[in-house]
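Support request, please re-run this one:
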Amino acid sequence: MSGGGSFGGGSGISMGTVGMKNLGNTCFMNSTIQCLSGTVPLARYFMDGSYRKHVNKANPLGTKGQIVDGFAELVRSLYSDERVVVPVRFKDIVGTWAVQFRGNEQQDSQEFLAFLLDKLHEDLNVGRRNKALPAPEPSKEPEDEPQLPDDVGSLKAWNSYIQTNWSIVVDMFQGQYKSTLRCMTCQKVSTTFDHFMYLTLPIPNVRGTVTLARCIAKFCEEEILDGDDAWHCPRCKKPRRAVKKLEIVRLPAILLVHLKRFYYQGPFRNKIETMVQFPVMELNMAPYLPSYGRRPYVMDQPSPTGTVTAAPTMQVYGPVEEPYTYDLYGVSNHMGGLNGGHYTAHVRNVYRNQWFNFDDSYVTGSSPESVLVSFAVSLSHSNANPSCCFFFLSSRDLPIFSITCDRFPQV
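Re-run finished. Output below.
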């Protein structure tokens, strides 16, 4: 199994198996942090202090380094000899920068993950070093913009993005998708490329069971925009019925997948009860990539002076190379009702290829079968409200840490 060594590079570090005390209703935070702590190259980056070279306290979008320092301290404690850590200080820091996480109410782990990764990115964002926030670009009519070949447009958009967004979070967790809109009246086509931190997948509302692959395929399906959702066509100069399609064009080294179980019909919130089967090993993403997304990128990169310099011989982690497969190493899972419930985490030690269940202070050995059973139980539980995030790592060897640190300019 190739994934067992995917975080290699001679780290000499093993995954931490320390529990976290629940500070009221902080299981949402605990399960998320255990999954991130189990992301070994990320944990290694914080544990040996390498992150300090990249802290950008001047970034107005960050937390002056407070979140990243607090997270590093917490990760170190999770790899210590302690049995249980009490994350009071980290929770206080988080509450300082996000009022929704300040009290003791139950919160959504996906929202917490989005907040935490965003602040870690901005605190470590060397792309914004000594740069003011960019002024909003003047709006352009897509009709007036030349349509570039997709491979050129994808690379151009990514290079533009990392001019002001460049961190270990971007390197590890972010990918890119293409959004295409086509007017059904005049056939005008508009193509844009956007980055993503995680894939939020729709679930087909059917009886029985669907696979995660089917959810990904549904994410990439064409949809019709009409009525209030009609596209304002720049050629027709009015709202028009249009076809929208999303395509994944760039895969990150670590793929985060979130299941979208809720939808709205007017003022009413509904939940999709469909069971989703997911692979523990070898999630194949190749069928969802275009041909230009299936080869390495040789990219430009920001230099220490903030300009872009050509680096024709440097392989930057862009699209995951063949075989484009991922192995599951973490699940943040919720079981309970709309107004309550409990989060736990299943995390795989990639060195010992052993699963652990993290239930706040309690850490027990687990197995792939237990992960599947736990997920099934959460779905079948009375009045269940599962909000799950899957953490997948690429099956190929990824010496992410050394490349990331070597090529980052120090702040």
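DSSP finds ten helices and 22 strands in the chain. The chain has a mean pLDDT of 78.
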